[in-house]
Amino acid sequence: MKKLPCIAYHASVLIICGHFAFANNAPRPFILQEMTWVDVRDYLKKNDMVIIPLGSTEQHGPHLPLGADFYEALEIAKRISEKTGVIVAPLAFAGYSESHMGFPGTISVKTDTLEQYVFECVRSLIAHGFKKILFFNFHGGNNIVQANLIHRINHTTSATAIAIGIGGTIRKDVPADAYEKFFDWHAGLGETSLLLFLTPELVRMERVENPTLQFRFTKEPQKMKELFEKNPGLAKVWEEQIGVPEQTGKGGASHEFSSNGIWSLNDVTKSNAELGKKRVDAMVQSIAEFIEEWKKSGSSN
Ligand SMILES: [Zn+2]
How many whole angstroms from 40 Cα to the centroid of ligand 1? Predict the structure, then answer.
């Protein structure tokens, strides 16, 4: 068969794949750095949304990569892009991770610095015509930065920003109590399962060891659930005291209360890719549905 000339070939692909928003052969997911300015110009004729993954580079126990949160944010955002055709623009590898500085390799950026950096990146995107900014955060330490960014974008620019990941209400996940024994916040069963599904080549399961945890609030972490059920206010105090920098003197830095950087009372050796897949599917589905609703609403920003 005679080979079609390149332009004709692309045109025929366009006709077959009529759902492509712009005239190029860029495969989904759409990652900004992998596109050309021509692709972005054509995308903006049909769509004004951009997903910005936010993560961190911080210790995640002896078995998960330092970039766990970055990879989770990026890999899940890519799956949302595959489903919705929305561009993903990764801007930062690091986040605010002061509490983890006791472990080698952790990189922490001050909240003001991170906010200013991301804001300037977003300002560039807005200048080109992006109007709907969707932050897909996957690191709790970034919540304050994300909240400030959203407020600043919404109150000082023509764009509308919203949180679709951690720190927002759009994302639906497998309910934590389906697998979590009260406390499984960092590098635990839930997160290890996510990465066993998303980036199994980066997980060293042979190194997993359940941590010894020691909080100043109570010497017996296993009894905390009982205590907090009786006194929910105390749970709030405890939550405020963990994940804080060592310099605060609260004993809430990662290396002060966890023997190996894992924050979990679960049996982390039971982590599995099936749970990870269920979690990813639930998140991608709920966020994709929201994106389609926002697209359909006809809102110009
Ligand atoms: Zn994490």
Answer: 31
Distance 273 CA to ligand 1 centre (A): 16
CA of 105 from ligand 1 middle (Å) equals: 14
CA of 84 to the centre of ligand 1 (A): 25
* Rounded CA separation 253/261 (Å): 10
Q: Tell me the residues surrounding ligand 1 (ion) with CB < 5 Å.
A: 68-69
CB-count burial class (<10 Å; 0-12, 13-18, 19+) for 220: exposed
Average pLDDT of the residues in 106-132:
98
Ligand 1: distance of its center to the CA of 44 in Å?
33
CATH classification of 24-180+277-296, choosing from 3.40.50.2300, 3.40.50.10310, 3.40.120.10, 1.10.10.10?
Answer: 3.40.50.10310
**Structure confidence by residue, pLDDT tens digits, 136-193:** 999 999 999 999 999 999 999 999 999 999 999 999 999 877 887 778 999 999 999 9
Span from the CA of 191 to the centroid of ligand 1 (angstroms):
7
Q: What is the pLDDT of residues 240-275, one digit of tens each?
A: 999 999 999 999 999 999 999 999 999 999 999 999
DSSP of 105-116, one letter per residue? T-BB--HHHHHH
Residue 41 CA, ligand 1 centroid: distance in Å = 34
DSSP 224-272: HHHHHHH-HHHHHHHHHHSS--GGGSSS-SHHHHBSSS-EESS-GGG--
Domain ranges of the chain: 24-180+277-296
d(CA 190, CA 203): 13
Tell me the average pLDDT across 56-77.
98
Assess contact for 157 and 149: CB atoms under 8 A: no
Q: Read off the pLDDT of residues 79-106 as tens digits, 9 standing for 90 and up.
A: 999 999 999 999 999 999 999 999 999 9
